[in-house]
Amino acid sequence: MKLATMKEIKEALEAINEKNDPFILELQKDERKGAQKLLKAWLKRIDKEQRLHDHFVTMNHYEKEIRNQGYTYIAGIDEVGRGPLAGPVVTAAVILPEDFYLPGIDDSKKLSEKKRELFYEVIQQEAIAIGVGIIQPAEIDRINIYQATKKGMLEAVQELSQTPDYLLIDAMKLATPYPSQSLIKGDSKSVSIAAASIIAKVTRDRMMKELHQEYPDYHFASNVGYGTQEHLVALKECGITIHHRKSFSPIKEMVENR
Question: Of the residues 31, 147, 206, 211, which has the maximum number of CB atoms within 10 A of its CB?
Fold first, then answer.
């Protein structure tokens, strides 16, 4: 089999997803460099799609196991922003439908900003329910970051429009009336927790970009509140804002030395 043009081969490959497809078997015999280049690119794409599919199946393991026990509304829970010097800690709870499929989903920190934004929109459209909890710096200073994270997670659960019947929580234990499981590095192991990490991360990043408009000297749009060199310089030159965490070093020492 030899198609007249590379364009025809390219168009045909776009509709094929199986390596044992008769067209692929014939294309392997085509000795033209252009044809083999197209085949190589196609094989690379198929292998990548398979890896993403396999990873998604692995990340859906806990959800599948829990559903087999009779639970339906599984809320994945995660937080973003425990470490920064400024801005809130943001938590999210997400309940996904059983047929949810988003190859490439992962811990939000492993995704590019563009991919996070794309996945955020997909999750917003397809999730059964999404809840978000936001704990501001003053509250973090009052009760400490650990307790603030727990409080935010509980608020996120309360914000869900659908009552969950099971919780999958990233690295925390919560006192709730629902059965739950805590997973270390859960945002890399569970689809639901990964979805929550993406919702929390995009929500917080957008908030920090808004703060940047009000406080451009601190470069919140790029450092999202973390203690980068430019942020630390701004603290020395411009002082502390109401959005800074006064219980975190070196801000704590700056407050004490006033």
Answer: 211
